[in-house]
Amino acid sequence: MIRGWRLSGWLVGMRRLAALLCTFALMLLSSTAYSSPALTYYGGYHTVVGHEQHNAAVAAAHPDLVKLYDIGDSWTKAQGQGGHDIQALCITKLAPGDCALNSTGKKPKFVLHAQIHARELATGEIAYKWIDLLVSSYGVDPELTALLDTRELWVVPIANPDGVDVVASNPAQPLLQRKNVDDSAGDCVTGYPGVDLNRNSSFHWDANQGGSCAETYPGAKAASEPETVAIQGLLQKIFPDTKSAVDEPAAVRTTGVFLTLHSYGNDILAPWGYTDTAAPDRDKLVALGNKMSAVTGYPVFTGDGGIGYLTPGSTSDWLYGTRGVPSYTFEIGPKTGWCAGFVPAYSCIASTFWPLLKPALVYAAKAAATPYGPLP
Ligand SMILES: [Zn+2]
């Protein structure tokens, strides 16, 4: 009896202790959830913080391969209201002089730029996988090892972090924020306020792209947004200007390739985007585009051909127009059916997009040595 009481008393005590421990664990879990933002959303897509942790982790794990840069602020950060740095990684087998913020480096540069349009979810994820592929392949895969020995592989995985914060704020059904979150031109009754960063460059910026609530609102003036200043600042530093004038062809010695990832349409857009007039190097730009088309199946268009609209003030026109670097927009994903649209299921990355895009990225990086020919 006494022994039984002692046993049941001990059991009650243990149960209370267990309950207390459970409560404590739950409190810990909920406080952790409260204090650390989610790293993924919508089935696996990475949040801005997820990308930031990833960038820091690969830089720390591969000091011989990765340089991580803060190239400027998001609009919210520039306002002193939180926000993010815009991050860029330079990945190569680092030798003296590599990955410097100037154009004197010896290795040709391939730049992958993603998620300038926040709701185009697949784009940041492709950049994430490209980073992982590169850092895990050195000394393992002969083709990629050779690439890392001879190229600087720059990646801007999230060009519009404020926008991605909005998108990911509804993890079960991402919000369709395209632009940055600059609401200085006023709030919107329908749609989202913000500036379309792919209409805000300082090359053929065109005020007539829609009012402040339009999805293509170009901002109050060219390069008005800190995100635009950040990316133009980086590209201006690392690529020399090889053109004698904007309307002249690029010098044959020009090196480098720039890809900006967008969704959707399954196509490749080559300069110009702002006009149907042929770019001075159009045939060569299309020739390189066709090589990437051969692996992705995406047809190559210029001007409004194929897409039905012009894109004044785009990042790719700006870089080709001011530096002569071959620059392309990839529109990832079909218009209809499985994996279509802005917010495809996360499984589409591994099942569909990555297998198509990986060889195109590898090709673009190889071609960065002689993008105007002879092509590899
Ligand atoms: Zn886009």
Automatic annotation (TrEMBL):
The active site is at 331 (proton donor/acceptor). GO terms for molecular function: metallocarboxypeptidase activity; zinc ion binding. InterPro entries: Peptidase_M14. Keywords: Carboxypeptidase, Hydrolase, Metalloprotease, Protease, Signal, Zinc. SUPFAM superfamilies: Zn-dependent exopeptidases. Residues 44-367 form the Peptidase M14 domain. The keyword Nucleotidyltransferase does not apply. Its cofactor is Zn(2+). This is Zinc carboxypeptidase. Belongs to the peptidase M14 family. GO terms for cellular component: extracellular space. Pfam families: Peptidase_M14. Gene3D superfamilies: Zn peptidases. Residues 1-35 form the signal peptide. One of its GO terms (biological process) is proteolysis. It comes from Kribbella rubisoli.
